[in-house]
UniProtKB/TrEMBL annotation:
Entry GO MF terms: iron ion binding; L-ascorbic acid binding; procollagen-proline 4-dioxygenase activity
Function as written in the Swiss-Prot or TrEMBL entry: Catalyzes the post-translational formation of 4-hydroxyproline in -Xaa-Pro-Gly- sequences in collagens and other proteins.
Protein name: procollagen-proline 4-dioxygenase
EC number: 1.14.11.2
Record PANTHER family: 2-OXOGLUTARATE AND IRON-DEPENDENT OXYGENASE DOMAIN-CONTAINING PROTEIN 3 (PTHR14650:SF1), PROLYL HYDROXYLASE-RELATED (PTHR14650)
Principal subcellular localization: endoplasmic reticulum
Pfam families xrefs: 2OG-FeII_Oxy_3, P4Ha_N
């Protein structure tokens, strides 16, 4: 769950061996660095001598400095934290301010962390370790971390990811035992454990348990000392969970192996301003903390053995809850599609846009609901984004198209639609469903969902072009494309999606990725893309070029953008939130200065 590790500054870890502040600081470099070449010439030897002296000076400097950056062991592996958890309270960061307004009753009253060895039983931990090993053994990253997301089935294989559930579906005829990968008993233990952890978090942080929802981030992790192959393998970078998955409120970790016994290195470290705080993983131990920047952390690189853990993320925002997305939105959408299809048949509607929207939603909705039989809703990483896009954009458009049409329908005709006596009832989607889901799913959520896609790209280091085509492929991987859904992907994004994600990526200051998304948007332009959006795509492309110092490229795109006739301001494309205006205006000014 981290994105920017490779370009973070070099990290040193100050370590005290005991539970309290010590005076001896051992400075250990954790940087992944290539081996030094052998120096042959005298000149080189002199140079390396000088380098060494500078390194020693730097060490002395760090050693004197490290009295200020102490390291405290919050929970050691030798300890047994049974009766009372170890707790630490920290000041809440501002990361929750927005949620505080939206969900006052479930905003954390206090922020902090706790560690306990008595949340789950030993048999439960043993069972989950077997489940983790069984699941993870189907994959295996070529780098240091293998992830298996239990809810989506996403599993690291070599430098790629596959959907394990689809894999099983395809191979089960040959390999009967795979069907039994997760038995009912396994899932039952998994659910019990998740609920126990949720309850503890609720008690500890004073949040009603019923308002803590599981997110789709839950994953088994196996960390080893293997050299990283892709960005996602670098698990030892500092990060803030909430910055990567915005909706997160609490992060919990269940450790399924023990520091010092099953592996070395691999301690969990909070990077506090004055001192680092360390948790040594222990079999059956649960650590939980508020996910904002008050709890920035990293995992030390494992030096030997294998480290197993189960990460479970919680949100207070029901829209990002697994259950909400699975049950509410999808079933609501299904009802809307049924009503609409009935209406389209009975009315012989000629509006091709309406048909296209319905067909597209129908196919995506039925894929998701078909998976329901296996309890695996929303299995593709783009599912959530696409569902929210349908709710925020497509269904709103359907409603608008129908509104326009309704005005031309007589009362008699209205009654005929679906056999209902008044048109509000007949067009269920028009009255209740669309309005309510549209009220719930706003452009803000759509932007968050787009942000979710960006986090996914960064966390798993995915190739943008492949993902835009609905395929999951790592940026750095070579060879055959590994997909989660056969060769023909139903998840291909359209010009608007790529534009929206491109804009969010731009706001994230990732200009090269933003350019890629916007170029994908250009490749996907069709008759449904409005001129305003096309002009804005070119505008953003121009800003991307400008940010990368490519002045002539910036000017070229700016001219292209200006060449498109912009309609009056009420036609400003959807999802152009007012917050975007300021930076874009600023950039526009910068660009104008160049002309
Ligand atoms: O496994 C751990 O201890 C922490 C992993 C982590 O921080 C993450 O995946 O965000
Ligand atoms: Fe994390």
């Amino acid at each position: 769950m981290s994105s920017d590790g490779l370009n973070r500054r070099k990290r040193t870890v100050n370590r005290n061996g005991d539970t309290n502040e010590g005076n001896v600081c051992r400075v250990v470099s954790r940087e992944v660095s290539p081996e030094r070449p052998q120096n042959q010439s005298i000149m080189k030897r002199v140079m390396s001598g000088m380098t060494l002296s500078m390194a020693i000076l730097a060490m002395v400097y760090y050693t004197t400095q490290c009295n200020d950056t102490k390291e405290l062991v919050m929970a050691s592996a030798n300890q047994s934290i049974k009766d009372f958890p170890i707790r630490r309270q920290v000041m809440c960061s501002q990361d929750y301010d927005e949620e505080r307004v939206r969900f006052p009753s479930c905003t954390p009253q206090r922020c902090g962390r706790f560690v306990s060895d008595s949340v789950i039983t030993e048999p439960e931990a043993k069972h989950l370790l077997l489940v983790a090993k069984r699941g993870l053994s189907l994959g295996g990253s070529s780098g240091g971390v293998t992830r298996l997301n239990v809810d989506t089935g996403l599993l690291s294989i070599a430098t790629n990811f596959v959907n394990i559930y689809k894999l099983i579906e395809r191979t089960q005829r040959m390999d009967e035992h795979l069907k039994e990968l997760f038995t009912e008993k396994d899932l039952q233990v998994y659910r019990t454990v998740k609920n126990k952890i949720r309850k503890r978090i609720a008690i500890h942080f004073g949040v009603p348990s019923a308002q803590l929802y599981f997110t789709r981030t839950s994953s088994f992790l196996r960390m080893t000392s293997k050299r990283p192959q892709i960005k996602a393998d670098v698990y030892w970078r500092r990060h803030v969970d909430k910055r990567e998955v915005k909706c997160l409120r609490f992060t919990s970790l269940l450790y399924l192996s023990t520091y010092g016994a099953d592996f070395s290195g691999g301690r969990f470290i909070f990077t506090d301003e004055m001192s680092n705080q360390t948790i040594e993983p222990k079999f059956g131990r649960v650590a939980a903390f508020t996910s904002g920047s008050e709890n920035e952390h990293f995992v030390e690189r494992v030096t030997s053995g294998a480290r197993y853990s189960l990460l479970i993320g919680f949100t207070s925002d029901p829209k990002f809850a697994v259950k909400y997305l699975q049950v509410n939105l999808l079933t609501q959408e299904k009802a809307m599609i049924e009503s609409l299809s009935e209406y389209l048949v009975s009315e012989d509607v000629l509006n091709s846009r309406l048909r296209r929207l319905t067909d597209n939603s129908l196919s995506l909705n039925s894929i998701a609901l078909k998976d329901d039989t296996e309890g695996l809703l929303l299995g593709h990483p783009l599912d959530v984004y696409l569902l929210i896009r349908r709710m925020a954009i497509d269904w709103k458009e359907v409603k608008d198209l129908l509104r326009t049409k309704d005005q031309r329908l007589s009362d008699v005709q209205m009654r005929q639609i679906g056999g209902h006596s008044n048109h509000t009832n007949a067009l269920k989607f028009d009255s209740q469903c669309v309005s309510s889901s549209h009220e719930i799913i706003t452009n803000k959520e759509l932007k968050d969902a787009a942000y979710g896609v960006i986090s996914l790209i960064n966390t798993y280091d995915l190739d943008i072009k492949s993902l835009a085509n609905g395929f999951i492929r790592s940026k750095t991987s070579s060879g055959a494309e590994v997909t989660s859904n056969g060769n023909q992907s139903k998840y291909a994004l359209n010009a608007f999606d790529c534009y929206l994600i491109g804009k969010q990526t731009f706001d994230n200051k990732e200009y090269s990725d933003a350019k890629q998304w916007l170029t994908e948007a250009i490749d996907r332009l069709d008759d449904m893309t409005s001129d305003e959006i096309i002009a804005d795509i070119f505008n953003y492309l121009s800003f991307c070029e400008l940010k990368s110092g490519k002045i002539s490229g910036a000017q070229k795109y700016k001219r292209l953008s200006a060449a498109i006739k912009i309609k009056p301001p009420n036609m400003i494309p959807i999802a152009m939130g007012s917050t975007d205006v300021v930076p874009v205006m600023k950039l526009a000014l910068e660009l104008d200065c160049l002309n």
